[in-house]
Amino acid sequence: MTETEAAARATSSSKPSITLIWLNDSRAQRIAWLLEEMGLDYELKVYKRTESHQAPDELKKYHPLGKAPIVVVDGQVVVESAFIVEYLIDHYHPQLKPAESDHKQYMQYRHLMHYTEGSLMPFMLLAYVCMMIRNTPVPFFIRPITGRVADGLSKSFVNPNLVSNYDWLESLLKDQPFFAGDELTGADIMLSFPIESAQERMGGFYSKERYPNLFSWVERIKARPAYKKAEEKVSAVEANL
Amino acid sequence: MTETEAAARATSSSKPSITLIWLNDSRAQRIAWLLEEMGLDYELKVYKRTESHQAPDELKKYHPLGKAPIVVVDGQVVVESAFIVEYLIDHYHPQLKPAESDHKQYMQYRHLMHYTEGSLMPFMLLAYVCMMIRNTPVPFFIRPITGRVADGLSKSFVNPNLVSNYDWLESLLKDQPFFAGDELTGADIMLSFPIESAQERMGGFYSKERYPNLFSWVERIKARPAYKKAEEKVSAVEANL
Description:
2 copies of one chain form a homodimer.
Chain A: H1 3-12, E1 18-23, H2 29-38, E2 43-47, E3 70-73, E4 76-79, H3 81-92, H4 103-134, H5 143-172, H6 186-201, H7 212-222, H8 225-239
Parallel strand pairs in A: 1-2
Antiparallel strand pairs in A: 1-3, 3-4
Domain GST N-terminal (chains A, B): 15-96
Family (chains A, B): Belongs to the GST superfamily.
Domain GST C-terminal (chains A, B): 102-241
């Protein structure tokens, strides 16, 4: 049975039992949004980070790496955000990826599924580390030094790379509303985390004037009923943490 | 036409024209190894990093992000290491992935294709950044401070995560010679870069005693004729850089 046949069979058969293992301040919200877009029921199982902001050890009962998000689909544990998105789309909602016959968009989708966590997020992580270094509690007369270390890393390596990546993402939306064509796909769901984070944190170069397409795209996804529904569910859960 | 059919057709048809855009000190060697495993001819097009260790601007003529490796297959530009590996295997050598019917190994393969660059490499990158911070040229009386910043990041975040990731990888080889079963797959090719780098750079926790399975695996892949052939080609090219 090919994957396409499996997907067709799964789509037509009874609904799967899905649990989403959710952790605060993680990238799990994307998966909640995806599940809402697919119209699938799921149980949200909530875990809270420890005081040192680590994932709690309990997550290791699902997978030895103990990171969220994790989904459990009919007993099958799936980890790694991009793999979760691909797995769910392939099996339950192939409409959320371009058709293979639409070659250019299909290639873009497959590329972006790897690009988001494999290329873009490492630079976002480094930007976060530079910020942490700048804020390291050190005596005030030392602060210029730790600042210099962080600035060296930002200016020579992190910022130029972030700029070229966001410029490229902006260019992808020049003639189309979503990252792999006219319709929302898993690539938009993967990219939502870094692009929304850029808006919140990268004041330096990331502005509405420079990135009008990315700003409109964020408005467009936030207006989707599924996005709102996921946000409401997660907010309700977070209020009780 | 499904992807499986496309793969079958491509495998049986005439050989594709392949160019591998190669950059020194990059992860492009993996793709050379893969192409040798597949028995495909390819042209190696060599570029050298600039003095500030960046990819040269010429790479942007292939793709706006200007990073290596890039492969051009019959005019189709493919970027992002894991996507290149998946693309080549799907189209020209499906033997390098587990059969879909071998569910557990197929899931492992798909997971590891995302895991290597999406989860493991960011920690490797942070370990490298910590090393750079420790070696930042600062006056000697300041060095303890930059050292403290780097140590803080290493001890609280980077090292514990590297240890749990390598422990997990070690466990995957407990009962099988390769990461997704009894045969070499694209997952081994993806993992070769971080695992070989760990052996070279992570003296602190990464030892033969602690990771005997990973050390044997490295010996096993290095003994493969295709690995040796790629290494020879790349060495010959590097000697002329």
